[in-house]
Design goal:
Chain lengths: 364, 494
């Protein structure tokens, strides 16, 4: 075990490292500049649990209607050895696949450990390459290292081998209407698929194959228009892959941040938790609310210290990077003399304040 | 946003409640707006669950689908909503204004009113658009016949959603966006998407500050979401059992009990938003209307009149615009945006302040005035008064640039020189036809004035778009006229 790993273990305390999945790994990329998040994630800390412990439980819930709909759609696409899926690949994407083997790598029986299942996944992939016209692997168990710790992924996806290359097939239940789906949902699907592509690439490079054996083109399967009929398109996830790679590399470089933290720091639940979390610098922005379980805690903190970032990144930029609401207001009303580097910003704020005053005065 | 908008947000934080970013109302508000608060079943593209609708705050009508996965029930809901929407459209067609005939002599009329739909937020607009898309191709005969009102509703909703895209149109409004045009809160724009939180900042209940009211509004139990998405725990704990009760009802009494229960629980989710909507309408109504609002409302009425009059012979809107239409539309939208921005600036000194900040306008006090100055360099002398204006604004207008007065755009001029906090303006028009200005038309020494280059660009016409038949092959060649097919009509809605 490396020093860093030992240190991260200590930060986590007695708690088990959290189980990652594609959603949580994809979320690692959503605020890469935040040291707090970096440390918590690198240590495998269950942010959801500590946010709740701090009294700021994250408001992420899922409606059972959405879950049911997702499951029904997926089951339908995969029914009868993926019959519908295959005809989609043939008809929609024009792939000539004469015959296909289907392997479900999901839990077969008993309680195989994830390590064992990952080994089996590896084996099958090793054999599949260069053999047979096409193969579908359902529920492969993949692995990705997060800050030196292995995270196992149990994707609900299918890896599809065709002419010596693998494609990730992602089945989502949001609708594609007249060829267009909700951009936010597509973006989130692309981020998650990128995690699988990367994990599968790692696996195949370990087996001595080229990275390109796994295509950056993911097959996205969604219901078409208002029906249950599936349709498929290719989704290029290269941009998401690049972001993910960068962030994973950054998490490995977390040692510099960790080195500066007090040696006895721990995120164990208890009275010291809030102080411990606060001791690692955050970079809150309103986007955190959709991407990080700590958001309500950090928002509260940002608001309490009057940070302009709590109002949005663009607001801070409009204010010439001034961090504090009180400072910006004091510069605007002239009660604070700006330091030299803020002179221009201050002049802009004073002008804005005067224009607002004049306009509101003119109106009344 | 600009430094002005950012500053307004900071002021709101400091004040503990929202501050104005407009001094007048920039949108038309109908006497009888049709408020629609829609809810959708989670996980589905467009499965209507319920909607609270109506033009009278005291008499909301609750429409709901007891089993949202049932196709027939969905169409029944669509037919009920159609009754409300089409009913309001017909009302608007009763009074007619005669207009002077067109150049070619054809008669022109304009309906006295235009229908106005208001939904809580942008997602509500998206929902109406999707509901329109899923209903407009339906047929009233053939294998899956629907109520004739259903495809009509689909076409109208598509039209409303289309008009929403047009800057300055007020036929369909998203309440959060309309409020944000007039007030800045002390929270982020993301959080402003929550109608209850935004209104909490603008008009906090007695005894609460803006942030306190907004915090309450974020609790989905105290303040159900404004839709169309529902609160997941409501779905799991309340709605699911209520729908199951309907599915399992054994007889008529059971069924009517189950429906009553659904009505109650859905109503509990919708009534709070319904009330917020009318409170927000009241706040907007209290603002004086901007000077150009009426003219934009006339355009809305024209657009409504035209669509209503050609409705009978028209087809449902195509699934996708062809290339020429799309380019034309984009161009029109850009033009509409420019003119809408300029109109708002002329109507509202607080909006004009944005242009003063960027130097496209400047305000100040007249320090020198030559009201009867003549330019005698040409054959005939021309009235060309000079004004010297002292200003602290960062003027970015070159000498020679045409400008006009913000208070009276008819008063035109041009920049002569800009130097050290002073601008010399030569007035060129808007002072009458004689060689001495009409009394009161030229500002005097000591007057506050504001001049801007806005709206003085010579009107750029629409570039020549090819006719539909001449669409270049690079854009897919001439599109076929869109005629809905049987397949469109029978499209599954499951
Ligand atoms: S919510 Fe807090 S910890 Fe999470 S990314 Fe934002 S600032 Fe960092």
């Amino acid at each position: 075990m490396t020093d860093l790993a030992a240190r991260l273990d200590r930060l986590r305390g007695a708690a088990q490292p959290r189980n990652h999945d594609a959603r949580t790994i994809a979320a690692l990329t959503s605020n890469p500049g935040c040291a707090r998040r970096g440390v918590l994630d690198a240590a495998g800390i269950d942010k959801d649990a500590i946010a709740a412990e701090l009294g700021f439980a994250a408001p992420f819930g899922q409606s059972q209607f959405a879950i049911t709909r997702g499951n029904v759609f997926e089951a339908q696409v995969k029914a009868d050895g993926c019959a519908e899926l295959l005809s989609l690949l043939r008809d929609r994407l024009g792939l000539s696949i004469p015959e296909v083997a289907y392997d479900d790598l999901g839990v077969v029986g008993g309680n195989e450990s994830r390590k064992v299942r990952h080994a089996r996944t590896r084996q099958l992939f090793a054999r599949a390459l260069g053999e047979g016209p096409g193969t579908l692997f359902d529920h492969p168990l993949l692995r990705l290292d997060i800050a030196g710790q292995p995270a196992y992924l149990e994707p609900d996806v299918i890896a599809f081998q065709f002419e010596g290359r693998f494609h990730i097939i992602e089945i989502k239940s949001f609708a594609m209407i007249d060829g267009q789906a909700d951009p936010a949902q597509v973006a989130s699907a692309a981020r998650q698929s990128a995690v699988y592509v990367l994990a599968l690439r790692r696996l195949l490079t370990e087996l001595g194959h080229d990275e390109d054996t796994v295509s950056h083109e993911v097959v996205l399967v969604c219901p078409e228009n208002f029906s249950n009929r599936p349709t498929a398109t290719f989704l290029d996830v290269r941009p998401q892959l690049a972001v993910l790679r960068r962030q994973l590399a950054r998490l490995t470089g977390i040692d510099r941040i960790v080195a500066e933290l007090p040696a006895d720091l721990t995120f164990e639940p208890g009275a010291g938790l809030a102080g411990a979390v606060r001791s690692v610098e955050a970079r809150y922005s309103p986007d955190c609310v959709s991407g990080c379980e700590m958001a309500l805690f950090c928002r509260d903190e940002a608001r309490a210290c009057g940070s302009t970032g709590a109002l949005g990144r663009s607001i801070r930029d409009d204010l010439g990077g001034v961090d504090s609401i009180a400072t910006a207001l004091a510069l605007a009303d002239g009660s604070l003399e700006p330091a030299e580097e803020l002179a221009e910003t201050a002049a802009g704020l004073r002008l804005a304040a005067r224009l607002r005053r004049e306009a509101l005065g003119a109106a009344s | 946003m600009s430094a002005l908008g950012a500053l307004a947000r900071l002021e709101a934080v400091a004040a503990g409640r929202a501050v104005p970013v407009a001094t007048v109302r920039h949108c038309h508000l109908s006497e009888r707006p049709l408020v629609i608060v829609p809810l959708r079943l989670a996980g589905e593209a467009v499965a209507p669950l319920a909607a609270m609708v109506g033009t009278d705050p005291e008499r909301p009508r609750l429409l709901f689908v007891p089993q949202p996965r049932n196709r027939d029930l969905r169409f029944r809901f669509a037919a009920e909503l159609a009754e409300v929407v089409l009913g309001r459209i017909e009302e608007c067609r009763t009074a007619v204004e005669e207009l002077p005939p067109a150049k070619d002599g054809t008669e022109r009329v304009r309906y006295g009113e235009a229908p106005q739909i208001i939904v809580p937020n942008q997602a509500g607009v998206g929902f109406l658009r999707m509901l329109g898309r899923s209903t407009r191709f339906r047929r009233t005969d053939g294998p899956y016949p629907v109520d004739p009102a259903v495809p009509m509703l689909g076409r109208w909703l598509t039209w409303f959603a289309d008009r929403y895209e047009r800057p300055g149109a007020a036929l369909l409004l998203a309440m959060t966006e309309t409020l944000r045009l007039h007030w800045a809160s002390g929270q982020s724009s993301l959080e402003d998407g929550n109608l209850a939180a935004l209104l909490g900042w603008i008009d906090p209940p007695e005894g609460l500050t803006g942030p306190q009211a907004a915090a309450l509004a974020e609790d989905p139990v105290a303040s159900p979401p404004a839709g169309p998405a529902t609160d997941p725990s409501f779905d799991n704990e309340v709605l699911a059992p209520a729908i199951a009760g309907y599915d399992e009802a054994a007889d008529e009494t059971g069924l009517s009990h189950a429906k009553e229960r659904l009505r109650t629980v859905l109503s509990s989710q919708l009534v709070p938003t319904w009330e917020l909507m009318w409170r927000a309408i009241g706040l907007l109504r209290a603002l004086p209307e901007g000077a150009n609002v009426a003219a934009r409302h006339d355009r809305d009425r024209d657009s409504f009149t035209w669509y209503a009059e050609t409705f009978e012979e028209g087809f449902p809107q195509a699934r996708r615009d062809d290339a020429v239409n799309a380019a034309r539309r984009l161009h029109d939208l850009e033009r509409a945006q420019e003119s809408y921005d300029a109109q708002r600036a002329f109507d509202d000194p607080l909006v004009m302040a944005e242009y003063r900040l960027t130097g496209e306008a400047f305000g100040g006090v007249v320090t020198e005035c030559l009201p009867t100055r003549l330019d005698e360099t040409g054959k005939k002398p021309k009235l060309r008064p000079w004004l010297r204006v002292r200003t602290g604004d960062p003027v970015r207008l070159e000498p020679g640039r045409a400008v006009c007065s913000a208070a009276r755009p008819g008063l035109k001029g041009r920049i002569v020189e800009v130097a050290a906090g002073e601008v010399l303006v030569e007035l060129t028009g808007g002072m009458g036809r004689k060689l001495t200005p009409e009394p009161g038309s030229v500002p005097e020494v000591g007057d506050r004035v504001c001049f801007t280059s806005l709206g003085t660009d010579s009107a750029r016409g629409r570039p020549n778009f090819p006719e539909r038949e001449q669409t270049p092959w690079t854009h897919g060649g001439p599109p076929a006229e869109y005629v809905p097919t049987d397949e469109d009509a029978q499209e599954a809605w499951s």
